[in-house]
Specification:
57 residues; 2 helices
């Protein structure tokens, strides 16, 4: 299985990916609501993150 991360992946991007893509669905309604809240908060945190240069491949 391919990894979503490289050695250069910034911590905030790892948190974003982990929260949105890798977090399992909640077992209860309340857990699912909290998972979605966490995902929204991860996007907010990431949107404030300054990215570096884009890869010019």
């Amino acid at each position: 299985m391919a990894s979503y991360f490289t050695d250069e992946t910034p911590p905030k991007q790892k948190y974003l990916i982990g929260t949105i893509m890798l977090a399992p669905p909640g077992a209860t309604y309340e857990e699912e609501v909290q998972r979605r809240i966490n995902a929204v908060n991860a996007v907010i945190i990431y949107c404030k993150f300054q990215e570096g240069e884009t890869d010019k491949r």
